[in-house]
């Protein structure tokens, strides 16, 4: 169970970093195919912000769950 909590925490840290870079720093190149879809008009900047926000929230949740598992189990 300790291994699971460590994996969840590390994965959460990675998701949080990517979400931060996408949402706040507007580094949309981290999203696969976003630049080409943006040029073609299939996706817009609001889609990139939504992806960044979802990754940021999931990352924080995963960090919290991983930390709680590590503490209580």
Description:
Helices cover 78% and strands 0% of the residues. The chain is built from 3 helices and no strands. The protein starts with a helix and ends with a helix.
Keywords summarizing the entry:
73 residues; mainly alpha; 0% strand; 3 helices; single chain
Task: Describe, in short, the structure shown.
It is built from three helices and no strands.
Pick out the low-confidence regions: none
Shape: elongated
Helix content: over 70%
Please give the radius of gyration in angstroms: 15 Å
Structural class: mainly alpha
Query: In oligomeric terms, what are we looking at?
Result: single chain
Taking all residues together, what is the mean pLDDT? 96
Strand content: under 5%
